[in-house]
Amino acid sequence: MTQFAITVKNISKSFGKVNAVRDLSFEVEANACYGFLGPNGAGKTTMMKMLYGKCTRGENGGGSINVLGYDPANNELAIKYLSGVVPQDNNLDEELDVISNLMVYSRFYALPRKAATSRIDYLLGFMELSDKRAARIRELSGGMQRRLVIARALMNNPKLLILDEPTTGLDPQVRHLIWDKLRQLKRHGTTILLTTHYMEEAFALCDTILIMDKGAGILRGSPAELLTKNVEKYVLEITGSQTLEAIADDATLQKVRIDRTQETTRVYCDDDQLLSNLAGRLEGARYFLRQSNLEDVFLKATGRALNERQ
Hints:
Blueprint: E1 4-15, E2 18-29, E3 33-37, H1 44-51, E4 64-67, H2 76-82, E5 83-86, H3 98-106, H4 113-126, H5 142-153, E6 160-164, H6 172-187, E7 191-195, H7 199-205, E8 208-213, E9 216-221, H8 223-230, E10 234-239, H9 250-253, E11 257-260, E12 264-269, H10 272-281, E13 286-291, H11 294-302
C-alpha cells in the first residue's frame, strides 16, 4: 500500500484580489522527490509555505492539508520538527562563522552540544564544506553558502526536506553536486519537495512533477509520462526569417505543430525523418533538430507569454 508523506485536498489561497492557489490537490509519496514547476507567480512558493505553516490557508475554510500526519494549521511546530526547509534566499548570519551558524540552529531542536557537534561534522563532510568550518559567511562563494543552507536544513535529520529553487544562480558543477546529495538523501529515506525553474533539474531529480499556472495544477506525472503524453517526440528549431510555408506543402504542414516566436520557429512532429527532410530544404537559416524535452511540455502547457505577476 502506497504511503503518502503529504496529502493536499482542494486548497485555495488569495492575497487580496490575487488567487495565489486555486483548488489545488496532490499527494506526495514517502521517500520520493516531488517537484513543482511553474512561471513566477504560479503559486508554488505559497503552496510550499502553507505546508510548513509559514502561510495560512484560505480563511474561508474548506480543503485539508496533512504533512507527516499533522495539519499545519494546528501542528505547525510538529511539522517543523520533522522537516527541513531551504528557502529561496541564503538567510545565513553573516556575522558568524560556518560552525556557529549551524550550532545556533541546532538549539532550535534542543540537540545536546556533543550530539550537535557530531551532526555538524557529518553534515559539513556530506556537503563537502569541512575545510570551511571556521570561515565567515562573507568568505564563502554563493555555491558554498547554498550548500551550507542545505546542511542547516538537515540538522534535525528531517523526514521531509523542502527546497525552494535550491540551485538558482549556481554554476553547473555545484548544481550537479547538490543533485547527487539530494539523490543520496532520497535513497536513505528522505522525502523531498522541490520547486525549480530548471527543467533539467526537475527531470533529473523528480519522481513526480506538478506543473502549475496561475495558482492551479494543470499537468502532473513522472517526467517520462509528461513527455510521452503531452508533446511530440521531435522538434526542428529554425532561426531566421524564412517561413516554413515556403518549403513545405499543405500535406506536410498538416502533420506538424508550429510554434512561432519573433525570432524562432519550432516545428513539432513524431516523425524525425519528416523534420530532417524539411531541414534539408532550408536555405541560409540556422536550425537544430532535437528530441523534445520537459521545457517544451512546460511552454506548451503554460504558454510563452510572461505571467502578468512577473
